[in-house]
Specification:
With 83 residues, this protein is mainly α. The protein is 34% helix and 0% strand. It has two helices and no strands. The chain is elongated, with a radius of gyration of 14 Å. The protein starts with 7 loop residues before the first helix and ends in a 25-residue tail after the last helix. 4% of the residues are buried.
Amino acid sequence: MIRFPIPTDELDRFRNLLPTKKPMRPYAFVFGHGLWNDLDLQATLDWLDTVLDASIQQAPWLSPPSKAPTSRSRSKHVAKRER
């Protein structure tokens, strides 16, 4: 996932890597920033928001209990940039 908008197949592969239940051992997420967006801050924020939203939807245990999405409310991100 190196550019925004993130292609659907790449986002699906990322989601499939995440367990839906909290694992016994801690997970680490490492985000790198390349020059794919020519240092466009908004593109970077939109990319991060998309990755974080996908993570929380697939693995709600990553979110604090009060912010975990339920079946009635989903995390909604409105990108400030057209996708």
